[in-house]
Amino acid sequence: MASDSARKGSSLRRLAITPVRVAGAGLLAVALAMIISAAVAVIDGGGAAAGLTAAALITASVGCALFFGSQVSPSTDSALAFASVAWSWLAVSLAGALPFLLTGVVSWAHFDDAIFESVSGFTCTGSTILADFDSVPQGLLFYRSMTQWLGGMGLVVLAVAVLPALGIGGLDLIASEAPGPTADRLSLRVRDTARRLWLLYGAVTCVVAILLFLVGMSVFDAVTHAFTTIATGGYSPRAESIAHFDSVAIELVVIAGMLYAGANFSVHWHALRQGIGAYRRVSEIRWYLSLIAGAFGLLLWVNNGELELFRNLRESLFYAVSLGSNTGFGSSNYVLWMPAAHLTLLVLMLVGGMSGSTAGGMKVLRLQVIFRYSFRELMRARHPNAVIPIRLGRSTIEEQIASKVVGFVLLYLGLIVAGGVVLSGLGVDPVTAFSGSVSALGNVGPALGEAGPTSNFLVFPRAGRLVLMAMMALGRLELFPAMLMLVASLRGLDRMHRQREGTKSP
């Protein structure tokens, strides 16, 4: 009896404390980003240093209280890991809004707009409510780009990498944080896996920043765009995004960075160790590149006659990669293109990049599984008694996983429809509403209609932006983990209630 009570108490303690500690670790990382951004503001001399410093102190204080006032249980189940990730994202998104408010860029009367910008940053969506970029201090624009860089690989993966206390049960945390169906262990030690992912992530970011500087960007522009390119976030300190520079060389560097970041970082690590053959062994790579190449060819064909040849080549390639990796950078206004081009771009937004990448969307791997599953069911209609496995390359997909993928895709599409219907009901035109829903859930950034790459998301009503925030969070956390967060939280409340009732009983 006593051991049973102890076991229940232990489970309750895990549910109550582990998410708190993970959230505290995330807030400390965000506070450090605010301090760095404050230093940039001081160097620039354009203001915002005081607001960023105040936000950092508040965030660090809360983060220290949460982190050092809690501990992680030695046994962490998947539901609890998912809940920890989800609640940490909620914490950093709320804290991340403080710099926009304390610098005066967003008024307190519109605090929800600051939260929108923060959520869009940490989820690597790239949708913005900012209109006059020239009036925004560079320190705050630097912080804004850093939110996407931290969100790209994930604050929780960072925590597992640098905080030994989170190493226990860390693989579940990495799996729940990595935007994709699976997490690949690169080392026997979970902490080493996280560190290797972040080492590669940071190294590639530095390479892209150097290349952008060499082809004509300022140091500030090179660093901020490198942050958001490798994070596939799409935030730019320039209102016109990449179009501001009007440089083919810059566009090619950004295209290479987006293409790289939209692929699985674990595969990149293996390729560094084993050579380029590591890419050839992964069928998802071939699907990913084929999807982008196919979209590029289709855009070229559709825009033929509408755009001059060189401009067609330039813009079609850029947007095939930008939206195929769900980055969302803009080089022109694709809203002016033909409807067939819009449909192509919408498919790219929907699918997204590879599993284990920083890209959003449904993921190419799930598209593979859906195609293989559908083909298998067609073959079964002809041969009902045949045993036909679902294969991806040399791997066989278990029935349970295939069913989970099908369920995910149906739920994903259902949420897009639901979001579009709600936004339409709030007065948004159907094209903007449904494309905005696709963009938010896929963490893309720009949409179609009035929310194109040259606009901002103030075209949506205030209530509509709340809907979009929820969809951005669901898209970044993945749907099943978000549901498990609710399950774990409700389970914790239920256990607390039962424990109280047991205490009251004679």
Helix content: 55-70%
Please give the count of helices. Answer: 21
Which consecutive residue ranges, at least 5 long each, have pLDDT under 50?
Answer: 1-16
Shape: globular
Count all strands and give the number.
2
What integer value in Å does the Rg equal? 23 Å
Termini separation: 15 Å
Mean pLDDT: 85
Please describe what this structure looks like.
The protein is an all-alpha fold and 506 residues long. It has 21 helices and 2 strands. It has a two-stranded antiparallel sheet. The two termini are 15 Å apart. The model is unreliable at 1-16 (pLDDT under 50).
What is the structure about, briefly put?
With 506 residues, this protein is mainly α. It has 21 helices and 2 strands. Helix 3 crosses helix 21 (479-504) and helix 5 runs parallel beside helix 20.
Layout of helices and strands, plus pairs?
Blueprint: H1 2-44, H2 49-68, H3 78-96, H4 98-102, H5 111-122, H6 138-153, H7 155-162, H8 170-177, H9 190-214, H10 219-230, H11 248-261, H12 265-274, H13 277-280, H14 283-303, H15 309-324, H16 339-351, H17 364-382, E1 390-392, E2 395-397, H18 399-425, H19 430-441, H20 462-477, H21 479-504
Antiparallel strand pairs: 1-2
Helix pairs in contact: 1-2, 1-3, 1-6, 1-7, 1-21, 3-5, 3-8, 3-21, 5-6, 5-20, 6-10, 7-8, 7-9, 9-10, 9-11, 9-12, 10-11, 11-15, 14-15, 14-16, 15-16, 17-18, 18-19, 18-20, 19-20, 20-21
Features:
mainly alpha, two-stranded antiparallel ribbon, 21 helices, 2 strands, disordered N terminus
